[in-house]
Design brief:
heterodimer, A: mainly alpha, 2 domains, 15 helices, globular, B: five-stranded mixed beta sheet, 39% helix, 15% strand
């Protein structure tokens, strides 16, 4: 409950904690203390029961609800404190449990795909050093390389579509367009973000893919290029909307100051507004990239579903499989190691998204440090 | 089916995938559960009411399901109770014999079936249609409705009878029509378990019909001669995956392939249609979701083993609709999928196996609808041969099963569930197994 700052040593922190707890107990009404105690104990028991998959879990949870109801009527402040704490803790707990589950489920295939390097056996290495995937015929291999390749290809194409278009559109809406245009277009763009991805995927599957197949003389249908384009278009509204907000939040004083020393509108835009809003604009692009990586439905419908590398590697005219589409396509049929391999794909996605999110926070932090102020 | 394939294939890795071929594989209750449940129900019912009273009292089909169960466990029970209750509860066999004469007073007993989840969709849909006993002006489920412009498939072939659905099919075997909605001459009930369970239940006399996706010889480990003595094998449809090509290939000379050519195409040894007599066009090879039931069945029957490699596959799809769509909008495509999704642009081709050409034509000598076609397997309904029914099939069973052997039944129940209808010759031979129509 108590927060320990990093300067404190363990013993000091513990002493501090005990003191705070003692003070809390001394200051609080006995009955309130009992109610809170019962709530905490019941909740812990319920959690333990949940972990053990016990059918009696409902009993301690019911006790918790009754205690919380009583506490709410008699000792509202203390109960509210405990309840808000509970919701925070449970959010974090749920997240931790999900992560732990994904990792634990992935373990068997990681050990199956061990590879020996310099006499040391490294679990999971073979998933990344060879590109063969075959879940049925021997040798059975679960390489993640083709899917990582596919995800990178789709993300690159999508970023190439969404970033320039999105930032340019945001710049126009924020700096150039008349007020009425902005007020009409921006909500329109935001509505675009609400179109379900399967609609894009369906159009891609029935219209874009066959067309591309004819035009580029591709054998069959399914290309990283057009999946990337579709996903990029899907990410566009997010990029436009977030980047426009960032550009809009650049203080008018900065722009006016620039104009006052004699720059043109365009010079102000490129040398003042854009750099000042850079953190927000890059956050917008990263959000778009995050969407591209996580996009599932359109990719599943449009891609070929045969995990292998394209030849040559930069060939975007054949689209095999991405991490997300692998999961979406196979979860119904997979079992055993194949199912575990899908969880590995999930782990890779999780780590990627984590890195991107931490990366965007870092960019933002650095920009804030550089420019300071309220940007 | 599952039990059967486990038995025949042993520890083969394909077993787990074969199980997945069944869309309804997970049973609602385990076998023992359902049997216990039935017995318990029957004990309780027997205490309270006689079976006949109960049957009369319960007009609704749903409640009559309980009566059917109790009836079976009665007839399977000990002789004393049976004799004592003889007046009010005729046994299965006696009711079957006197079905037509008795139908006026209390009606023949419920027809029961259980077994394979692969056969279940066909049998259950048939049973649902039967039990609702739709009028001939319904149009959607039975007969023809000129106002809405609906006519069921195969209606004119039946001679457009002016009777309700179950009334018509039952009357062919001498049952009195009821003329009422949701009141067929006798109700039917289809249970869901496994092929082996279905076979065992029909042999034990627990149900009238045992549904099975594998032959009973494999399911119960019987010899052919024993199977012939004990049961009659009725085939009502087939489960299989015809090979299809896109129309540009079909119209340019490739209307049949040998099994070996198909294998080579899927294993990347043939990559151009010109190698098999078609146009100079690369082959776009479409497969099914890796490790799915259809994928495994194809590997097993076409490529030689359940874990045969398929390096030639360019695209994999999970659903028949996707396969059909991809074949129709791409040139040079080959795929395998349920027959119901074929069209003008997705055409089934003939396949030659070991010198026999199986043609995509129902009236040909050897057809891709045949049991011998390697990508097919029969869907069976077994009935038991008893002293009272030396031919193995009583009138109720015949009336119900005959429904599936019409154009109407084949199109609505078999093709409607994406299974393969029987070719003309097989329909004739299946009809010959049923007793004479009245």
């Amino acid at each position: 409950m108590a927060q320990t700052t990093s300067e404190e040593t363990g013993a000091e922190a513990f002493g501090h904690l005990v003191r705070r707890f003692r003070n809390f107990v001394d200051e609080t009404d006995r009955e309130a203390l009992a109610v809170v105690g019962v709530m905490s104990a019941a909740l812990l028991a319920a959690f333990a029961g949940f972990l053990l998959v016990s059918s009696y879990t409902v009993a301690p949870f019911a006790v918790f609800l009754v205690a919380a109801g009583y506490g709410w009527l008699r000792h509202q402040e203390l109960t509210a404190r405990l309840l808000t704490l509970t919701t925070t803790v449970s959010t974090i707990l749920i997240l931790i449990l999900i992560i732990a589950f994904i990792f634990v489920e992935a373990v068997p295939v990681v050990f199956y795909e061990s590879a020996t390097v310099f006499g040391i056996e490294i679990p999971g290495l073979r998933m990344f050093i060879q590109p063969e995937w075959d879940a049925v015929s021997s040798p059975i291999r679960y390489s993640m390389v083709p899917m990582i390749h596919g995800t990178v290809m789709v993300t690159l194409v999508a970023t190439a579509v969404a970033a320039p278009l999105g930032v340019a559109a945001a710049l126009f809406l924020s700096e150039i367009a008349p007020r009425t245009v902005r007020e009409l277009v921006k909500p329109g763009v935001e509505i675009l973000a609400g179109i379900p991805s399967i609609v894009y995927g369906f159009i891609g599957f029935t219209v874009l893919s066959p067309w591309a197949s004819d035009q580029f003389d591709i054998l069959g249908q399914g290309t990283y290029l057009f999946v990337g384009v579709v996903v990029g278009l899907m990410a566009l509204p997010t990029v436009v909307s977030v980047a426009e907000d960032a550009l809009n939040s650049v203080p008018e004083s900065m722009k006016s100051g620039s104009l006052a020393v004699g720059t043109t509108d365009w010079q102000t835009m490129t040398s003042i507004t854009l750099p000042a809003a850079f953190s927000g604009v890059s956050a917008a692009v990263l959000l778009g990239v995050g969407r591209a990586i996580g996009e599932t439905m359109a990719a599943t419908v449009m891609l070929r579903g045969v995990p292998k590398l394209t030849d040559p590697l930069y060939n975007v005219f054949y689209g095999q499989e991405t991490l997300t589409s692998l999961i979406a396509r196979n979860y119904g049929e997979a079992d055993g190691l194949q199912m575990d391999a899908l969880f590995v794909a999930g782990v890779i996605l999780f780590i990627t998204v984590l890195v991107i999110s931490v990366g965007s926070q870092y960019v933002e932090w650095r920009m804030r440090k550089k420019f300071g102020g309220d940007v | 089916m599952c039990v059967g394939y486990t038995a025949t294939l042993g520890t083969h890795p394909s077993v787990r995938a074969w199980r997945r071929i069944d869309p309804y594989y997970k049973p609602l209750l385990s076998d023992t559960d359902s049997i216990q449940l039935m017995t318990r129900e029957s004990d309780r019912l027997a205490d309270r009411v006689s079976r006949r009273k109960f049957l009369i009292a319960s007009g609704a089909v749903g409640t009559a399901g309980l009566a059917g169960c109790s009836g079976q466990s009665d007839s399977g029970g000990d002789a004393e109770t049976e004799a004592a209750a003889d007046e009010s509860t005729p046994t299965e066999q006696s009711s079957q014999d006197t079905a037509s004469s008795e139908s006026g007073s209390s009606g023949p007993s419920m027809l029961t079936a259980e077994g394979s989840s692969t056969v279940y969709p066909i049998a259950n849909k048939g049973s649902s249609y039967w039990n609702s006993n739709a009028p001939p002006d319904d149009g959607e489920y039975w007969g023809s409705n000129s106002e809405e412009g609906n006519t069921v498939p195969g209606w004119s072939e039946l001679g457009e009878p002016d009777m309700r659905l179950a009334d018509y099919f039952a009357s062919l075997y001498g049952f009195e029509p009821t003329g009422q909605q949701a009141t067929p001459p006798f109700p039917t009930s289809i249970g869901l378990s496994h092929s082996g369970t279905g076979c065992q239940s029909v042999v034990d006399g627990l149900v009238d019909i045992g549904n099975s996706s594998g032959p009973i010889t494999a399911e119960l480990g019987w010899s052919e001669s024993k199977a012939e003595e004990e049961v009659v094998d009725h085939v009502l449809g087939r489960d299989g995956q015809p090979v299809v090509v896109s129309s540009d290939i079909y119209n340019n000379g490739v209307q049949q392939l040998t099994g070996e050519q198909v294998r080579k195409i899927y294993q990347d040894e043939i990559t151009n249609w010109s190698e098999v007599g078609g146009p100079d066009q690369e082959i776009y090879v479409i497969g099914r979701a890796e490790g799915s039931g259809t994928d495994t069945a194809f590997r097993l029957n076409m490529l030689g083993s359940a874990d045969a490699p398929m390096p030639g596959v360019d695209t994999r799809f999970g659903q028949n609709q996707q396969v059909a769509q991809a074949v129709s909008q791409n040139e040079g495509a080959i795929a395998y999928m349920a027959l119901a999704f074929t069209s003008d642009t997705v055409l089934p081709i003939g396949i030659e196996f070991e010198g026999t050409l199986y043609e995509p034509d129902k009236d040909a000598e050897n057809t891709i609808f045949d049991s011998a076609y390697p990508l097919n397997r029969d869907l069976h309904q077994y009935t038991k041969i008893t002293e009272d029914t030396p031919n193995g099939t009583d009138m109720r069973e015949a009336a119900f099963m005959n429904m599936f052997l019409t154009d109407f039944g084949q199109q609505v129940f078999v093709e409607g569930n994406n299974y393969i209808p029987l070719p003309t010759a097989d329909i004739e031979s299946e009809k010959a197994k049923l007793p004479e129509q009245v």
